[in-house]
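Before the break, one more example. Copy the sequence into your notebook; we will annotate it together after we see the structure.
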Amino acid sequence: MGAPSQHLFHPANAGDYRREVGAAVDHLVDHLVATAGRPLTGVTPADAARRVAAVDLDRPLGRTDDALAELSRVWLDDAIWFHEPAAAAHLNCPVVIPALVAEVFVSGVNASLDTFDQSAGATFVERHLVDWTSARIGWGPGADGVFTTGGTQSNLQALLLARGRAGAPADRLRVLAGADGHFSVQKAARLLGLGEDAVIPVAVDASRRMDPAALAQALSGCVGRGEVPMAVVATAGTTDFGAIDPLPEVAALARSYGAWFHVDAAYGGGLLASRRRRHRLEGIDLADSVALDFHKTWFQPVSCSALLVRDGASLGHVTWHADYLNPQDSAHPNQVDKSLQTTRRFEALKLWMTLRVMGADAIGDHLDAVIDLADTVAAELAAMPDVELAAAPQLSTIVFRWLPDDADEDEVARLNEAVRAELFDAGRALVAATRVDGRRFLKLTLLNPAATPADVLAVVDDVRRTGRRLAAAAAPGAPRDLAVAR
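Here is what the structure looks like once it is written out:
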């Protein structure tokens, strides 16, 4: 065998690998330390695109050090750092170190989890984690599942299984989901040939949870029109409010109409590890399928998610045998029979390493910490006369807005959006925007267990202070330079 290329991961290049990966870790940690206290730079799309477009991919740099320096210019210098308390817009979490350690092995070994002869023990690591998580849900030994890229893929596969069981023409099938549920349900319906109009939104109550009475009415209406309720999708942690639908009541209604009951727990699924709040998921064991995102409230790197099913036999709807890969007479177990993907990374190792180093209780404690944080901050906001809370937080999101004096709805919306844009452009904070019943609000998504109430209230104070200044600048007769002050 000839000498390997110096860039190939190979025993002959062990020293090069150790040195260059070490240099990469040092480079990353240097950025981590240098950017402490700054969540982002607020780089514009035009500037980010220009820096990347200037790279000639047909002229390699030759040295890893040079490539790392270039990487800083095109990405790391302007990266969003989700460990910073002021990065509070989206469901992106700071990640735990054991999972980062696992990433070294996931990429270095490069196992593919489709068949045993590509993964060996990795097949059983994933299966053991599926069994462990299924037991936490409350299911028995007949449960099964597979790791996925995220909640969108998990929801798609769950509805694929539901469609396979429904046994009715596609144009008659309907999916019922809470009005605050994730948009991936509509996307899945479109991809499955049902059309997004096949998804019937079910009204939510004052706590932003699916209203069982509205669900009962919607199910009855489906049957009355000659439609088939294919699936009912409940949410355990809506994106905006963290609301957890009343799972026992929703499950009973779904069962009474013969509909598949799916729980999208991409956000709230971390409660399975909580010692204090596990009861909030009461009724999740009644589901036919559950979507979990470990890369949200389990503090894992993207991507690390799973679709779990109460009856493992239901996964047969995605099975296809190929003679070169997973023939029916194979003596080896495989995971490709359960998955929408073929080649698939060993993402489960990240969760495995986390549980073996930290344990589930520590993960649950991290989640409880950010929920406590949201409760504390929301109580402070409720006492502020110029702040409106859309609803009390139920997990770790806070939906609020700044209310200027004597402003109509359009002006409130304009000013809050202007505040959000300034905070981003100046690199001070990353705050999300959403709409609640047609009205524009801001949103803080708190997933940093190290953040304090003072950290988050500083972001809110920045919102209020900036809003007052922008409102003053927009007032009739205001000095022109106020409009551009920072």
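The mean pLDDT is 95. DSSP finds 15 helices and twelve strands in the chain. Try to locate both features in your own notes.
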